[in-house]
Task: inverse folding
């Protein structure tokens, strides 16, 4: 999932007339910024506004180590959306990870293409601001990214590394490893974030 730049309106100035007009091509919907969505939630702060594209993983009988074949399990603990409970006490200033379920499959390493499900909430009040479970189909659309290359916020690159397929991990991410002073849709500036991430598939780096 890669962000693209917003199209800009083309302004044509008439030579002999005082008025001017603009025309925008609305043949597609790439100019629309939904709120919130996977790319906005997980992309690091940027100087341009990200517009996500949606890639729906295909379902096949091949190995779940291939991201495009990975999908939400039909049974078991990863088949239902987890609920986030905010811990008591002040928000941590460093990344905190906790394995809720320890996976038994391939290990996620830098450069691997991963397929995950996730729920994200604010540490301050527990409000969910985004979840892959709410995107697309009946059980959502799992999110795909490359680990350790800046596709996602730093807290994800650091916190997801080392997970195994079939695992569910909680990440508590301070602002310095998330969006810092940059506000996002549903995420105030300087927010500590809580994610629960399910690792569904790993495509190993060559």
Result:
């Amino acid at each position: 999932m890669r962000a693209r730049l917003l199209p800009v309106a083309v302004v044509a100035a008439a030579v002999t007339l005082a008025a001017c007009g603009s025309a925008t091509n609305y043949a597609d919907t790439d100019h629309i910024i939904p709120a919130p969505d996977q790319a906005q939630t997980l992309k690091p702060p940027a100087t341009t506004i990200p517009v996500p594209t949606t890639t729906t993983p295909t379902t096949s009988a091949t190995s779940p180590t291939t991201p495009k074949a990975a999908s939400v399990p039909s049974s078991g603990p990863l088949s239902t959306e987890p609920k986030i409970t905010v811990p008591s006490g002040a928000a941590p200033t460093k990344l905190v990870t906790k394995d809720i379920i320890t996976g038994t499959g391939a290990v996620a390493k830098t450069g691997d293409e991963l397929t995950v499900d996730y729920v994200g909430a604010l540490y301050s009040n527990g409000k969910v601001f985004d979840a892959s479970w709410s995107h697309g189909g009946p059980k959502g659309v799992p999110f795909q990214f490359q680990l350790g290359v800046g596709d996602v916020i730093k807290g994800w690159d650091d916190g997801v590394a080392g997970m195994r397929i079939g695992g569910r991990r909680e990440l508590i991410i301070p602002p310095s490893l998330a969006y810092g002073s940059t506000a996002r849709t549903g995420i105030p500036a300087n927010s500590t974030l809580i994610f629960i991430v399910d690792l569904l598939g790993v495509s190993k780096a060559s």
